[in-house]
Design goal:
Elements lengths: L2 E2 L1 E3 L2 E3 L6 E4 L6 E5 L6 H17 L3 H16 L2 H8 L6 H25 L6 E8 L7 E8 L4 E4 L7 H13 L3 E4 L5 H13 L8 E3 L16 E6 L1 H8 L2 H4 L4 E6 L4 E4 L8 H15 L11 E5 L3 H13 L3 E2 L14 H15 L3 E5 L4 E2 L12 E4 L8 H4 L6 E7 L2 H9 L4 E7 L3 H11 L3 E7 L18 E2 L10 E2 L9 E8 L1 H8 L9 E2 L16 E4 L3 E2 L2 H11 L4 H4 L16 H12 L7 E12 L8 E12 L10 E11 L5 E12 L10 H5 L15 H15 L12 H10 L29 H21 L5 E3 L3 E3 L1 H18 L4
Parallel strand pairs: 1-5, 8-9, 8-11, 9-10, 11-12, 13-14, 13-20, 14-19, 15-17, 18-19, 20-21, 25-26
Antiparallel strand pairs: 2-3, 4-5, 6-7, 7-24, 16-18, 22-23, 26-29, 27-29, 28-31, 29-30, 30-31, 32-33
Amino acid sequence: MEKLKNYIHGEWIEGTGNGIPLYNAVTGEQVAVSDTEGLNFEQALDYGRTIGYKNLSSMTFYDRGEMLKKVALYLLERKKKYYELSYKTGATHTDSWVDIEGGFGTFFTYSGLAKRMLPNTPFWVDGETQKISANGTFLGTHILTPSEGVSVQINAYNFPVWGMLEKLSTSLLAGVPSIVKPSPYGSYLTNAVFQDMIESGILPEGAVQLICGEPGNILDYVKDGDSVLFTGSATTGRKLKSLPSVSGNSVRFNMEADSLNCSILGLDAKPGTPEFDLFIKEVRNEMTTKAGQKCTAIRRIIVPENLVGDVQNALSKALDQTKIGSPLSRETRMGSLVGKQQYDEVLRKINILKTENELIYDGKHELVDADYENGAFMSPKLFLNDAPFTKNISHDVEAFGPVSTLMPYKDAEEAAALAKRGKGSLVGSIISHDEKFVAETSWKMASQHGRIFVLNRDNAKESTGHGSPLPTLMHGGPGRAGGGEEMGGLNGLHFFLQKTAIQGSPDILTAITKVYQQGAEKKYADKHPFQKYFEEVEVGDSLETAGRTVTDADIVNFSNVSWDHFYAHTDATSLTGTIFDKTVAHGYFILSAAAGLFVSGKKGPVIANYGLENCSFFKPVYAGDTMTVYLTAKEKINRGVKGRNIPSGVVKWLVEVVNQRDEIVCVATILTLVAKKSPFIDLKDVQKILNGLTENTQPQWGKMSPQQMIEHLEHGVLTSLGDPEADQCFTPEEHIEKYQDSLYNHRKMPKDFIAPFLNADGSLPELKHKNLDAAKQSFTEHLKRFSIYYKENPQAEHMNFVFGKLNKEMWELLHKKHFTHHFEQFGLI
């Protein structure tokens, strides 16, 4: 039987012991063996702290976000084999989708967050700068840097893929190397996904390691700077947290434990209402999805005391209709538990629940393409606790399977009190259309819950469900649930980051943070900052404008244009008792006039105004006052651009408006989209570049001669003129949009692309010009024709063999890329 290999200190290593046999939860057949005996855990931790930390922490947040996206895309292409393994864990197709593609989705989400919101630096400036001196020469702020250690991540058996990727999404993005320790059960699926992550070559050396089997004494070697993330039972979690190596070395510890989550049916949600039907459907789903093996599953069903019978009947019917059996069957809606050992453990907990609660539903389901003897199948079980304020077992004991307990309540006060008797939960839900009931119950139960999910007819179509943790929201809970926090958008990164206060002068803080601080030295140059490409802009680049004297006519005209006739701008007789001496200029006029002073009218790399932040007005501006503006590049934010958008970044500019007395009257931060410099040649430079091409110029790749290359480019130009019109496009219709979008990005053409229009034997067309000089002349003449043609026919479109029908803009982009590709082929640029 195949032994699962472990991946530590950059090598795939097999354990030296007998290991743990892993079985197919549906058929009982052995699948693999997990074994960690003989592994050097101390060496694995040191490898992560040194090689892994060095490689990951030196990357920027932006680049780590791009890394997550590439890994997720790589895994997504290989998902079919993961599903085949997932079915062996007892998971249905839907269960597997949540685990597998839900895990990939977490990587995609964090990649998007990084590229939208995180800096292109290895550190992250957190919060606003604090002015801690009277004259502003001494400032303070905070930066976040990767904690200098390794993260040991211990995952549960219920989600072999999502459990791993959910934790890695934040640790890798934070720049912290990780050691993944999945539960042995289902670890063959984790192992398969992990193998592909390594084989992709995308992750830097030492970024991730994998231990498939028992963790041994790995936690004996954790040190200050390391972290431990644990998902599993609260009992085990507390033991690990109290280990001397963990508590004594101040090792960061995050626990996400089992919890007795509840769902509350509102007093208004009577049979016949949409909410009643939604409640039954949601409880049924949470009892049967993953066969109830979810830390977020509904364990306590809290309903109005007069509706207990209605809920029991409706839920029993819904459970009766749930087909149980082999995940390979299309009929199956609920699979098996992860294995016989787990089955025995759930049965033990069921017997404890029976001592105090009545078993009111125990469906004897016929299995689809499976049998109870070989597989770890268990039918759903519903208990009734008729006195939930005196009978406590259902608030204390969790059967981690398709098991839940129904219990009555009288009013909102009782519903919230019962919810809190779980002593800390990951999630609680309320299904009601009564806003007052929902609000009152939510406030009262919030202190004992990590998440509250409210469902009703208004959000049902788009709801993600009671049991679905989302990357942008916190996953964790107080008390019994472990007191931990995972994900929650960018907040999930903070666990892995060291927060450090930085104090110093404005120049020093600017140098450290790469964000311009007011009072720091400004860098003036002849070139207008708005004429610089994103890569050329430097933090501190500044412009001092000419002055503009505000007139009464300015104030009156702005009132008329904006329709802002607030009395302070228009009625001098109403100013008694106000802060104004006379009619005052509008704040937005000051901003508009400032923009008029600092913008560059000439077309340049600045694409658009992207937004406005932190605008404050400090002094009134009256007619006769003269405004001068200081514009300074404050911060640069790299930006992922999709589709047919110009590759660009965001530049934040500090705008300081002063009056004739050098008093600051307005400070704001404006955001602009600034184009990145294209790596492709401008068409007007072609003639000059061609001067360097001779008959003796040798290609750096491919087999073209100089003349063949020029005639090939000429053919492309003629095609863009419809002379002759290309008769077909060789790219399938479903890929055309993607190909056309690629014209807008700055990625160069591949060197090994085989043109689909070549002769059958791959040879190039025969030469049509007598020599290279004649070919050059003809090519440049047709290029001039191209420019004139699209000025006269701006709406014209012509077919391209690869990219389909293209307009003027697309043809220009294609020619720039194509010319650059071949000019680089011959070493001309």
